[in-house]
Amino acid sequence: MNIDQIYTGCLAHGAYYIESNGEAVIIDPLREVQPYIDRAEQDGAKIKYILETHFHADFVSGHLTLAEKTGATIVYGPTAKPSFDAHVAEDGEILKVGDLSIKVLHTPGHTMESTTYLLKDANGKDHSIYSGDTLFLGDVGRPDLAQKAANLTQEELASLLFDSLREKIMPLADEVIVYPGHGAGSACGKNMMKETVDTLGNQKKVNYALRADMTREEFIKEVTDGLLPPPAYFPANVKMNKEGYSSIDEVLHMGTRALSPAEFEVAAEESEAIVLDVRHQNDFVLGHIPSSIFIGIDDNFAPWVGSVIADVNQKLLLVCPEGREEETVTRLARVGFDKVLGYLKGGIEAWKADGKEVDQIESIPATEAHHRLEQEKLPVVDVRKYSEYEAEHVENALNIPLDFINSKMAEFPKDETFYVHCAGGYRSVIASSILKSRGYHNIIDIKGGFHAIKNAGFIVTDYVCPSTLK
């Protein structure tokens, strides 16, 4: 028996490969499927099943492409209604994989079709569960994402999740291993642990949602309390996972077209594409194509693209670090952004060499910002999450989280220069680039973010100003 957890940090996502006696299953695969095919070939195994725990909202699964390339059967749990050929399993159904058995446990609550897969070893002993977004480490799946599809309230879905956990998962033995669909950083839960595997017994001790004496009412209150609005791209990803999508091969073929500066400029003008610059923020502030948006590839790239661009059908043109063009297109496709028209050949240096206009963002060290603010009191805008701001922030700073920048654009100062910062410098440059593309040119970025600010003499506080935005 071989079990591999294939964890993708930028999406905080766990896919799984299980092989026994020449047969394999893949659970919740990502969009690019060749690594799974290569892994099976390495073991001399045939992929028999592609198990989907639910219709994912935070990424586009590779189930359709993988099924097309391998002939494997796509499996969903009860009540699922995909628009393509798939096996909709019954609750309690057993799937055979080599010498192993996988039992289908219908665990609705996160979504109605949510399913946990229980792996039994060759002797029939319970070994591990693959819980998708039903059970995380330290948390459970949020019950507000499928309200419209289920025609239920989040409280009603939470009540179903309460029953699923207590009737299907908690009765399992403590030594059963828990392999969740996501870890810390995912927007599918609130309080996930940084670890990506644990025993069910330990989760019964540390996971608030598995407390044995918890009442249904307490569970519903805790699970629904403090839920932030989901990223705007989530519904589009659900639709793609349920109804289908273009082949990743087609997306890569289109997206990795190399365009000269002249071709790039024409494409931007004719297509109304957004120019997305994925270099490091320090490079972007020094010089970038006017009106381009910065979202760096080396951080939580794809989730931030989905949060601030939102429309997965938006056409994009890329400015990438050399050699990372295919990686960028792939990571965009993971969250449904398939309309990449190509990338700037030679990058920003080729753009400059062609005599084309370059813009900059004023970005200064925190020590210089502190000195300037002592001379002239100007607004400071903190684009961190509200929870970060609430813990500690610059005195009198306005909090406008990056997540909500599109709906809160009018809250940014228009008639005077203002400073913007985040925790480390990544989100503030994203915010600054979006603001500049919308006509705000009175921005000064504080380099290094709040980490640098605390060491630069700024007065910080945990008092929450009534004017801040939650």
Q: Overview of this structure, please?
A:
By secondary structure, the chain is α/β, with parallel strands linked by helices. It has three domains: 2-235, Metallo-beta-lactamase, Chain A (4-Layer Sandwich), CATH 3.60.15; 246-353, Oxidized Rhodanese, domain 1; 362-461, 3-Layer(aba) Sandwich (Oxidized Rhodanese, domain 1), CATH 3.40.250. The chain is 31% helix and 21% strand. It is built from 17 helices and 24 strands. The chain has a six-stranded mixed β-sheet with strand order 1-2-3-4-5-6, covered by helices on one side. α1 (34-42) links the parallel β3 and β4. α4 packs across α6 (216-224) and α8 (248-255) crosses α12. The longest helix has 16 residues, at 154-169. It is globular.
